[in-house]
Amino acid sequence: MQLMDLFGKPLSISKDVYILHEDDSRHENQQQTNQAFTDKWDVYCKEDIAEQEKLFEFQKQWYLSLYGFASEDELAAYLKKKPVIVDAGCGLGYKAKWFADLSPSSLVLGIDYSDTVFEAAVRYKSTDNLVFLKGDIADTQIISNTIDYVSCDQVIMHTENPDMTFKELVRILKPACDFSVYVYAKKALPRELLDDYFRTKTKSISHEEMMSFSEQLTELGKRLSDLNVTFNAPSIRLLGIAGGEVDIQRFIYWNFIKCFWNEELGHATSVATNYDWYSPSNAKRYSKEELMNMVENSALKTIHLHSEEACHSGRFRK
Ligand SMILES: C[S@@+](CC[C@H](N)C(=O)[O-])C[C@H]1O[C@@H](n2cnc3c(N)ncnc32)[C@H](O)[C@@H]1O
Q1: Paired sense of beta strands 311-317 and 301-308, if any
Q2: What is the C-alpha to C-alpha distance for residues 82 and 72, in angstroms, rounded to an integer?
Q3: Are 230 and 246 in contact (CB under 8 A)?
Q4: In the list 179, 240, 265, 275, which could disulfide-bond 188, CB 3.0-4.6 Å?
Q5: CB–CB of 137/161 below 8 Å?
Q6: At a CB cut-off of 8 Å and minimum separation 6, what does 96 contact?
Q7: Distance 199 CA to ligand 1 centre (A)
Q8: Residues facing residue 241 across a β-bridge
Q9: HEC string for 95-160
């Protein structure tokens, strides 16, 4: 399969990356979101490689449960039946690389709107069945009904209009093929209000200030975790706060402010996770019903549906 067969036209190329959209978005929030991810990945990809590998491994295991694959072998067997795979919003490209390795006869396209794709193209240059494209996944320019598997993991809520992006990714999918997608879940009211406030505020905050804000949130998460205290929280229905026995860090994290800390994943990954949350202007949250509305509006069949406090995700068939 050649790119020409998917796009029906030649694409320009810059530093081993195919260019779908030369210019950045005309939408202020999408533009800011692209810059936020360019900055985030730029810092993170210079961090300790062992810590990056730990995150990639954690993410791969999570991916299997988000989209209903019992094991990596099951995912590999599935991908081997998919000649063309799109990783929509691939970031640093490690999942696109994973798909390409699991299914060497497939062609994998990793698309991202941030400049991170240039780093991904350098990292994975030697993988022949993997190409990277820079552009907006809401306007892929791919011919309709041509892609055998579309994966959009932890991305769609960062796009300017997630409903339109959803429709675009379904448009390029072949009939009887699957679309895997993840959305952020809505949290308790105090957390939602504070998150919205910060997303507006952080637009006017410099990258350096955002990094130190993320460091401070990480430190808060760490100090609360170090307390190692659980308590029996009351349920406060009107605020959406679930009661029960809960660790104090988790209680504050889910209900009031994102202060991520994970000792195993490490300091840099924890800081990047906090940065990732408050920095991009576009970061819509969903109820399960809202995700299912998008699925039903595109007349997709549910193959797998997953919900946890952080997200709703699933694999849906056209
Ligand atoms: C949280 S990261 C997830 C990256 C990757 N899927 C992963 O799981 O590691 C979100 C990514 O979506 C990308 N993104 C946001 N809006 C986009 C758009 N409209 N088109 C393409 N990529 C977009 C960002 O640049 C960022 O790399």
Answers
A1: antiparallel
A2: 15
A3: yes
A4: 240
A5: no
A6: 87, 90, 108, 109, 110, 120, 124, 130, 132
A7: 17
A8: 236
A9: HHHHHHHHCCCCEEEEEECCCHHHHHHHHCCCCCCEEEEECCCCCCCCCCCCEEEEEECCCHHHCC
Does ligand 1 come within 6 angstroms of the Cβ of 89? Answer: yes
In this structure, the residue with its CA closest to atom 3 of ligand 1 is: 154
Question: Is the pTM here over 0.85, yes or no?
Answer: yes
Q: How far apart are CA 307 and CA 152, in angstroms?
A: 16
- What tokens does 200 get? 């507006």
Instruction: Locate the DSSP E strands across the chain.
Output: 12-14, 17-19, 84-88, 107-112, 130-134, 147-152, 173-185, 230-233, 244-247, 285-286, 301-308, 311-317
Q: What does the alpha-carbon distance between residue 241 and residue 187 come to, in Å, rounded to a whole number?
A: 9
pLDDT (tens, 9 = 90+) of the chain, 318 residues, equals 788 899 999 999 999 999 998 766 678 888 888 888 888 888 888 888 888 899 999 999 999 999 999 999 999 999 999 999 999 999 999 999 999 999 999 999 999 999 999 999 999 999 999 999 999 999 999 999 999 999 999 999 999 999 999 999 999 999 999 999 999 999 999 999 999 998 888 778 888 998 999 999 999 999 999 999 999 999 999 999 999 999 999 999 999 999 999 999 899 999 999 998 888 888 999 999 999 999 999 999 999 999 999 999 999 999
Residue 35's Cβ-count burial label (10 Å; 0-12, 13-18, 19+) is: middle
> How remote is the CA of residue 113 from the centroid of ligand 1, in Å?
7
**Residue 90 CB-half CA count within 13 A:** 33
CA distance linking residue 295 with residue 301, whole number of Å = 8
Q: Is the Cβ atom of 280 under 6 angstroms away from ligand 1?
A: no
Residue 142 and residue 107 in contact, taking contact as beta carbons nearer than 8 Å:
no
Atom of ligand 1 nearest to the CA of 25: 19
